[in-house]
Design brief:
Layout lengths: L9 E7 L12 E7 L7 E10 L3 H4 L21 E8 L9 E4 L6 E5 L4 E3 L15 H13 L7 E4 L7 H10 L4 E6 L2 H8 L6 E4 L5 H8 L4 E6 L4 H9 E9 L20 H5 L2 E4 L9 H14 L6 E5 L4 H9 L6 E5 L3
Parallel strand pairs: 8-9, 8-11, 9-10, 11-12, 12-13, 14-15
Antiparallel strand pairs: 1-2, 3-4, 3-6, 3-15, 4-5, 5-7
Helix pairs in contact: 2-3, 5-6
Length: 342
């Protein structure tokens, strides 16, 4: 174990102080300083180097039962993080090791070593384990290949395609032999990146014209797979464009996360019957058995240059909430990450 001199007395963390009504406001959060716990037997103390902000965290700010427990008011929030071990009382972990774990939104984390995983800065930048090699990457991989049952030759449509998950989905589809990969994004700059850097066949700005019209033009022969990060008008457009036996992985519905009233369902659900469409919701934790295969294929694609990824960095823990709110507004390309200065 490291000497006590290396262990800080206090560290800052972000806490939810009020349940947001609609869009979260900065006043719903507080950055607070609390004492740092020394590790007990089986535990490690980690100095976080970066943490993740993700769309699913908005749902955890509501006091409703869901697949992930709500954030507790006036308690540190959590989420994906990478950091350096400062002190260890766990076999196999030593000061200086790098780990990925689930206690983000804070400068220091004390946790059972079994809840952390060792990572190597030589294999990939540490922040990649929060994005392309982490939860978003596995979500893209499992959602496309397992949930949506992708087959070579499929025409694929991805909403929220410039985000951490969508940008990977489209590239995996391309690599695996899609006949056509179409993406939607919220700015002309992102659209250009989809067809340029990420290699999508077609892309459109969903703010410039109705999604149904733009998708029909981009996929005149229809689509076979839809990866849904948005819901709403995008799901309705996909139902309109699906070929017979189309499949959709319903990963997120960010268009509804901040709604204060119930949102109407797609108005054309009868297409499910006519075209024998399969819509399947997904949570990445159900697909952990794919992780070894994922960690074999994706790093190889990165090394070969077939798959590229982007990260949007916000520096300083004090800007953590701004990064989260910016991510909800679509200000990021690829993964939004908060880096901590030390």
């Amino acid at each position: 174990m490291a000497s006590s001199e290396t262990i800080p007395a206090t560290g800052r963390n972000w806490q939810l102080t009020a349940r947001p009504k609609g869009w979260p406001e900065p006043d719903d959060f507080a950055l607070r300083e609390e004492s740092v716990a020394e590790p007990e037997d089986g535990q490690i103390l980690v100095r976080n180097l970066a943490f993740s902000v993700d769309p699913y965290m908005r749902g955890r700010m509501d006091d409703v039962k869901s697949y992930a427990a709500p954030f507790q008011l006036d308690r540190p929030m959590d989420g994906g993080a990478v950091g350096e071990v400062l002190a260890s009382r766990a076999e196999g972990y030593a000061p200086g090791d790098h780990v990925v774990h689930g206690l983000g939104w804070r400068e220091y984390a004390t946790l059972p070593a079994e809840h952390a995983g060792k990572i190597s800065a030589e294999a990939a930048p540490l922040t990649a384990y929060l994005g392309v090699l982490g939860m978003p990457g596995l979500t893209a991989y499992a959602g496309l290949l397992e949930v949506a049952s992708f087959q070579p030759g499929d025409a694929v449509f991805v909403s929220g395609a410039a985000g951490a998950v969508g940008s990977i989905v489209g590239q995996i589809a391309r690599i695996k032999g899609a006949s056509r990969v179409i993406g939607s994004a919220g700015s002309d700059e992102k659209v250009a990146k989809l067809t340029g850097r990420y290699g999508f066949t077609e892309a459109f700005n969903y703010k410039s014209a109705p999604v149904t019209e733009q998708l029909k033009a981009a996929a005149p022969d229809g689509i076979d797979v839809y990866f849904d990060n948005v819901g709403g008008d995008h799901l309705e457009a996909a139902l309109r464009s699906f070929n017979v036996h189309g499949r959709a992985a319903i990963c997120g519905m960010i268009s509804q996360y901040n709604a204060t009233e119930a949102q109407p369902a797609p108005r054309n659900l009868a297409q499910l019957i006519k075209k024998r469409i399969r819509l399947q919701g997904m949570l990445v934790q159900d697909h952990q058995a794919l992780r070894p295969q994922f960690l074999e294929e994706v790093p190889a694609w990165i090394r070969s240059g077939e798959l590229v990824y982007d990260e949007t960095f916000v520096d300083g823990i004090e800007n953590g909430v701004d990064a989260f709110l910016g991510m909800l507004r679509g200000e990021n390309t690829g993964k939004m990450v908060v880096r901590l200065a030390h």
